[in-house]
Design goal:
This protein has about 260 residues and is of the alpha/beta class.
Length: about 260
């Protein structure tokens, strides 16, 4: 909750009962380089899944395939009971939001223009309604005075918090986070993680790739470990961190904890 007492409206109450995401035998290759090697995965409504693994293991590619930022080489992704394809992905992204590692704000647009572009262009809101919603969210994160600023004038933490509320403008059912704090200075990380935690507490279905182990323990309802493009192990956070089942996970945790 922000200093003025406002709350983020997640849009969850308007979401359908079945917000499940199903991934079946997912593969992704870049030429001869096989990055994802047969992943099966399900995300249930209200879950908060943290994806862990070493650098280069395929974690970010996995998320980008789910959102079709990268087209899978083979396999199926099913969202709300519908197979995701190149033809329907723009519509599906209204309910399957993504927050990127490097913010992806449009540099020649103001913060307000960045926030209102998608809902207005997709004809989900009038320009007036979108501006009102954007200001509510900016006030919530304590940045209403940045509405007319350009991204170049913002700190990394401010950019990432704005990127998160930009995703919230469409009231998605599921939010994917691809290492949202990796490009931030230590002082900004806490602000961004607090905002993500708030979304989780309000029931948002979340899938997040992160290297923040303390945060992973705190937020996750399930932890998934990926290595060499495969899911090696998964489980509830307490069990995963305290009693890992595989030698690979034991080795990884021994280095990062």
């Amino acid at each position: 909750m922000s200093e003025n007492g406002s709350e983020i409206k997640t849009g969850i109450s308007q979401a359908g009962a079945n917000t499940d995401l199903v991934v079946r035998n997912l593969h992704k290759a870049f030429g001869k380089n096989k990055v994802i090697n047969g992943i099966d995965f399900e995300l249930k409504e209200g879950e908060r899944v943290v994806v862990l693994g070493p650098s280069g293991s395929g974690k970010s590619t996995f998320l980008r395939c789910i959102n079709w930022m990268e087209e899978p080489t083979s396999g199926e992704i099913i969202f709300d009971g519908e197979v995701v394809t190149a033809k329907n992905i723009r519509r599906i992204r209204r309910n399957l939001g993504m927050v990127f590692q490097h913010f992806n704000l449009i540099t020649n647009m103001t913060v307000m223009e960045n926030l209102t572009l998608a809902p207005v262009k997709l004809k989900l809101m009038s320009r007036e309604a979108a501006r009102k919603r954007a200001m509510e969210l900016l006030r919530h994160i304590g940045l209403p005075k940045k509405a007319d600023a350009y991204p170049a004038s913002l700190s990394g933490g401010q950019k990432q918090r704005i990127a998160i509320i930009r995703a919230m403008m469409l009231s998605p059912e599921v939010l994917l986070f691809d290492e949202p704090t990796s490009a931030l200075d230590p002082e900004s990380i806490g602000d961004v993680l607090s905002l993500i935690s708030e979304l989780a507490e309000r029931g948002m279905t979340i899938m997040i790739v992160t290297h923040e182990m303390s945060f992973a323990k705190e937020i996750a309802t399930r932890v998934v470990f990926i290595d060499k493009g495969r899911i090696i192990e998964e489980g509830e956070p307490e069990e995963f961190f305290s009693h890992p089942k595989t030698e690979r996970v034991k080795e990884f945790l021994g280095k990062v904890l």
